[in-house]
């Protein structure tokens, strides 16, 4: 396995953080949830940034920090926020500098998780189910631009981690 960062992408609630922590343990790498990195570097929560400055300002902060980590760190497991990969500059930096793993989930499976996901996720609190499905579908097409694709439906985080390990070997 090379020294590149592994970047986990996928829709919110797919399990990027859980799988990222398991991968970091297996590979003895540091796990970085980029949403938490952004909060640490700005000293504010993401909902606070959204409320005070709006999504556009948040996306600029997210872009700057994420690209910096893609270009200037190695051997980490980076978990991106669900919308980060929609930004072309982030996507290009990830694909050029890192190994990108798309954790995929069906809409039906995601719906089963939705209620437990709402807290701390401004986009879920503001949008109707129809709007969320449109967002899910539009992001799905972009997520397919990746190094490895892993379907997570009806699998445990441990099984997903094992699938990724097999793809990486």
Automatic annotation (TrEMBL):
InterPro entries xrefs? P-loop_NTPase (IPR027417), Shikimate/glucono_kinase (IPR031322), Shikimate_kinase/TSH1 (IPR000623)
Q: Where is the signal peptide?
A: none
Alphabetized UniProt keyword annotations: Amino-acid biosynthesis, Aromatic amino acid biosynthesis, ATP-binding, Cytoplasm, Kinase, Magnesium, Metal-binding, Nucleotide-binding, Transferase
EC number in record: 2.7.1.71
Its pathway is: Metabolic intermediate biosynthesis; chorismate biosynthesis; chorismate from D-erythrose 4-phosphate and phosphoenolpyruvate: step 5/7
- Binding residues for Mg(2+): 17
In the record's cofactor note, how is the cofactor described as bound? Binds 1 Mg(2+) ion per subunit.
Question: Which GO biological process entries does UniProt record here?
Answer: amino acid biosynthetic process; aromatic amino acid family biosynthetic process; chorismate biosynthetic process
Q: Which domain of life is it from?
A: Bacteria
**Do you know which PANTHER family this protein is assigned to?**
SHIKIMATE KINASE, SHIKIMATE KINASE 1, CHLOROPLASTIC
Quote the protein name from its UniProt record. Shikimate kinase
Q: Which organism is it from?
A: Alteribacillus iranensis
Q: Which gene encodes it?
A: aroK
